[in-house]
Amino acid sequence: MNAAQTTAEHLDVVIVGAGLSGIGAAYRLQTEQPGRSYAILEARDALGGTWDLFRYPGIRSDSDMFTLGYPFKPWRDAQSIADGPSILRYITETATENGIDRHIRYGSKIVAAEWNSGESRWTLTVQRRTGEGVERHTLTCGFLYSCSGYYSYDQGHEPEFPGIADFAGTVVHPQFWPEDLHYAGKRVVVIGSGATAVTLVPAMAEQAELVTMLQRSPTWISAVPGRDKIADRIRDLLPADLAHRLIRTKNILFNIGFYQYCRRRPEAAKKLLTGLTTRILKDEGLVAEHFTPDYNPWDQRLCAVPNADFFKAMRKGKAEVITDHIETFVPEGIRLQSGRVVEADVVVTATGLQLLAFGGIDLVVDGAPVNLSDQFVWQGTMLTGVPNFAVCIGYTNASWTLRADLTSRLVCKVLGYMERNGYTAVVPEPQRALRERPLLDLASGYVQRSIADFPRQGDHNPWQVRQNYLLDTATVMRTDLSKTLRPVGAAKSLQRV
């Protein structure tokens, strides 16, 4: 052990990321494993993660807040589909009310994480911004928990568009929205058809002359109520905590039921979705051309539009959709393969996220770099070959927080199991051979571009990352840890500081 290691600060647990997941993880840790020392390392200068990073017009949740919110803090605002600033306030309140904010270390990015089995601890090299510049220091911890999600905060996916340097207007990416962008009375083209695009179009249409959503192919889009009237009635009749649990259960059952309906009866689901859209737009040809994808619902994530605002903007003539391919940018806009030139003053490249596994931390175990794609995920939480390390991965077909909270509870259970049995470290090991499958089983382009760099899931429990909250709640917390978690390192109690 070198001198830097002997003087390094030691913590029981280090949580990476102060977003929705990280704040929830800290709450579970200090509630279910009280007395453990911990810190949250946040690379940015503010908490909130996604909900602080993204500042584009109309930013909002794509899941209802009764399930995207924490089970331990009822969502009390009127809107079920909430705007970004409201969600950020909610996360901030949670951190402040529970003293979690005092554990956050801002501007602190882990650039290296090395596990030593002889010492049963992680040594973290942390890069921290100060008034004088950037400095590096080390700290050690007994358990490392990554709650940084799976996309890059530093860059989005930006395809190379021919001729883009010739464009006379302004090009922006939603992930880095300029505060001084003025688009009132201007022609805007939004490239893309995912959740970000269908959010931007109606929000920008309120001021722009015309907003055009330019898509290569259609996406399944469904209008949903922005406000849950049944939830409002339940909250009027019942105490807040009981109402929250009941509304949450209602929404979980509905979302799981609709997902299963789409997967088991795809043709019926297609008919339902196109029928609802046709009822709003009153144009079967328009729906067939621009809103009827060639894939089944939930092969990719379904886009929800609250109060049908996207479709209403189209009906008002403030927005349009074009399905075509880009040939090249020209000074006045974009020329399509069909020959049409779409004039634009502002082009928004809502072309998706850039996946990045667990904040991009390079893991080293006993001197050997870890190749994530060689590892399997146990219970959607821990990795083979990497002791005392957990990751937070939310659902792709339901609210992220449903799975994130379950994962944090499982991490606490693992910590308790280690202490009771005198283990300083554990690592999951399969009992029989696993047939590998991608960690995220979605056909979306942003997933397919980078998923090969992620760990794998297996073909049977507890190595499957199931997209079913009901099954997970019934089994995850009841799992027998002794069957799959192998103790490693010295057999002594996990030390607390």
Automatic annotation (TrEMBL):
InterPro entries: FAD-binding_MO, FAD/NAD-bd_sf, Flavin_mOase-like. Its cofactor is FAD. Keywords: FAD, Flavoprotein, Monooxygenase, Oxidoreductase. SUPFAM superfamilies: FAD/NAD(P)-binding domain. It holds the Pfam family FMO-like. It comes from the Bacteria. Belongs to the FAD-binding monooxygenase family. This is NAD(P)/FAD-dependent oxidoreductase. It comes from Nocardia tengchongensis. The lineage of its organism: Bacteria, Bacillati, Actinomycetota, Actinomycetes, Mycobacteriales.
